[in-house]
Amino acid sequence: MTDRIALVGTGADPDDPDSDGFAMAYRHAAGYQRIDGCELVACADIVRENAEAFADAHDISAKGVYEDYETMLSEVEPDVVSVTVPPAIHADIVVGCAETEIPDAIHCEKPMATSWADCRRMADACDDAGIRLTINHQRRTGPIFREAKSLLDEGAIGDLRRIEWSTKNLFDAGTHLFDLSMFYTDETAVEWVLAGLDYREENRWFGTHNENQAIAQWKYENGVYGLAATGRGSDLIDPYLALSGTDGRIELGASDGAPLRYRSSDTSGWKAVDTDENVWGDPLPSKFRAGLDLAAQRVPGVPDDLFGVDYPSHIDRAIAEVIRAHRTESDSVLDASVALKGTELIFAAYESVRRRGRVDLPLTVDDNPLESMVEEGLVAVGAE
C-alpha cells in the first residue's frame, strides 16, 4: 500500500539562515518519511521559491511543485493532505480541499482556526465530504503524556479533582493544554468558563492576536476544575501541567527539571517516573548515553552526535497516528470532533473577558472575541 502525500503551505526552509519563519511543513514531511508506504508527491505555496526549496529538500519532482493548491489536488489526486499554513487561513484551505472530495484525509496544523465559526465550518465541510480531518495536537501522542494518563487511570492519585497548567498564551500555545485537559478528563463536557486577561502590548503569533497574560478557570460536568495561567502570570502554576486528585498529584514539566513525577499516600515524597523524553518531546538520554555523548564532545574531530539515535518527535508520532487512522478507517485521538472540544474553551475564555462574566457552554458566538475586542478598542493595547 502506498499513500500519496501532498502539503499545502511549505513556508521558508527553517535551515536557511535567511529564513523569516518556521515552516511546519518540514516537520510534517519528516514524519511521513518515517512511515513505510508514504510518498511525498506534491507541495504548494504561494511563494514558488519556497515550494521549490521544499520539493528539493524532500525529493519531490519539479512536476509536483505548485503555487495553487486546488490545481495541485486536481492534477495529483493525493490520498492525504497536510495543511501547514498560518492559522487565519486554515479554514478556507481545509474547506477548499474538502469541497474537491479528492483526499481521503486532511491533517491540519494547530490552532484549529482563528474563529469559533471557522472551526465548526472546517469540521462540517469534511464530514459532509466524507473526509477525515485531524488537527495536530501532537502532545496527545507523546509517551510522557500518555504515561501520565495511565497513572491517572490506574488510580495513582485517586479520583481527578483539578487540572492546572501554565504556558505562554491561551490560543497558540494553550490549544495543546486545553486539548490535553480534555484528554485527561475523557472528553467530559465543560459546564462553564471564567477568565480575565491583559493585552497592553501587541502580541501576534503567526499573524493572530494572543494575550500578554491571562488566568482562566473552568468546570467539567463531573465536578473536575481546570485552572490556567499564561504569559507574565504563568509562574502562578509551577509545572507545565499538573493533575491533582483525592489522593495525590501528578506533575509534568516541573520547574526543577523533573519530566514526570507523582506523589500519593502510597509514596514517600515525589516518585519519579522513567521517561525517554521531556514535555516538548526532546529525548532524555540514559546516564550511559549521556556519558558517551560527553566523551564524544571532548574528543577532537569526533562528531557531537556520534552516539545519537533517531528518536521520533511528538509530531512524528502524530503523523503516524494520522496514517494509522487513515489506513484502518478508525477513530483517531486527533480527530476534529475531539479537537473542537478543547478549542471551544479558548474562545469561551476570550468571550468571558468580553462579557466580564462567566460563560456557560455550549458557546453561542461565532467570532474570535479577543480579535474583535482588539478591533473595537475594548482591550488596552498600548496602555502603560
UniProtKB/TrEMBL annotation:
What one GO molecular function would you report for this record? nucleotide binding
Q: Where is the Gfo/Idh/MocA-like oxidoreductase C-terminal domain?
A: 170-361
| Superkingdom assignment | Archaea
In the record, what lineage is assigned to the organism producing the protein? Archaea, Methanobacteriati, Methanobacteriota, Stenosarchaea group, Halobacteria
Query: Which residue intervals define the domain Gfo/Idh/MocA-like oxidoreductase N-terminal in the entry?
Result: 24-137
What species was this sequence derived from? Answer: Salinigranum rubrum
Show the Gene3D superfamilies listed in the entry: Dihydrodipicolinate Reductase, domain 2 (3.30.360.10), NAD(P)-binding Rossmann-like Domain (3.40.50.720)
Task: Identify this protein by name.
Answer: Glucose-fructose oxidoreductase
